[in-house]
Amino acid sequence: MTVHLHEKGVFTWNEWAEALSVEVHKPGRAEDGSDYFDCWVAALSGLLVAKGVADADTILALQQSWQRAAEATPHGQRILLENDPLR
Amino acid sequence: MSEDHHHDHQHHHDNRYSDMQARVRALETVLTEKGLIDPGAIDAIVETYETKIGPRNGAHVVAKAWSDPDFAEWLKRDATAAIASLGYAGRQGEHMRAVFNTPDTHNLVVCTLCSCYPWSVLGLPPVWYKAPAYRSRAVIDPRGVLAEFGLTLPETRKIRVWDSTAELRYLVIPERPEGTDGMSEEALAKLVSRDSMIGTAIAGMQP
Fold first, then answer.
1. Is there a catalytic annotation at residue B85?
2. Would residue B115 show up in a list of annotated catalytic residues for this protein?
3. Which CATH architecture fits B55-198?
4. B25 and A33: CB-CB below 8 Å?
5. Residue from B2, B18, B116, B164 carrying the catalytic annotation
6. What are the residue boundaries of the structural domains of chain B, listed by start?
7. pLDDT surpassing 90 at residue B187
8. Can you list the alpha helix ranges (DSSP code H) found in chain B?
9. Based on the domain organization, do A64 and A34 belong to the same domain?
10. Residue B120 pLDDT grade (very low, low, confident, very high; cuts 50, 70, 90)
11. How confident is the model over A53-86, as pLDDT tens digits?
């Protein structure tokens, strides 16, 4: 996903490396790097907000919507955003 | 995000997304709505890296270096250009450096910060390359890590560890196995595994 966005010109590779590096080195991050994926997601979210591609509220609202959709989806069926009862 | 990933975390309870899983889905949704990604394009990219690009490109580079001393010399001097001459250019504009194994020195590549990897010649990085254990231990105890990969080097052989960055990626050029004189480039390339170009194996070693 990150590589694809880079190719679309949404951000440069250095901007991405810098955003990821900031997240990885934030205080409170796990020393063994076990939260690397969290860093990756935080870096990508932050960069998209900084670039004006998405705003933080929209991302958070969608995140909560996906969680409600997941809980409303019967087990074994594909989770779709439309399954969110509040949507 | 692959479907497998979601399944791994769903267990046999009700469907539930962790904050992180839901955040990834949210990002996918935003980007799809903006027309910045389409899920099919992501799959196509992954597929390309797994099958077309893959480590075969790197094996071609190594086999050519073994067969053609001029190319090997060029590779040592300017790996970015030598590799690009075979049609393998980096997607992120990164520079390449080829590090040659010798009877005295074995080379091992890691990215301690994240998972920078020479995609254009090796395809997608293996899961262990991105794992915290490899990223930290390759630097602290390279000999121990190699032993876990089944590679025991003589005590006298030095191990150099190269830490990749966003701008500079490394490709290990393993030593040409003995008894391969007169083999064609194509046959030689088959002896070059992905791991031998990261440095966790040697060429011609049984996987």
1. no
2. yes
3. Alpha-Beta Complex (3.90)
4. no
5. B116
6. 11-50, 55-198
7. yes
8. 3-10, 19-33, 39-47, 56-67, 69-77, 79-84, 119-122, 127-130, 132-140, 142-148, 185-189, 194-198
9. no
10. confident
11. 889 999 999 999 999 998 888 877 778 888 898 8
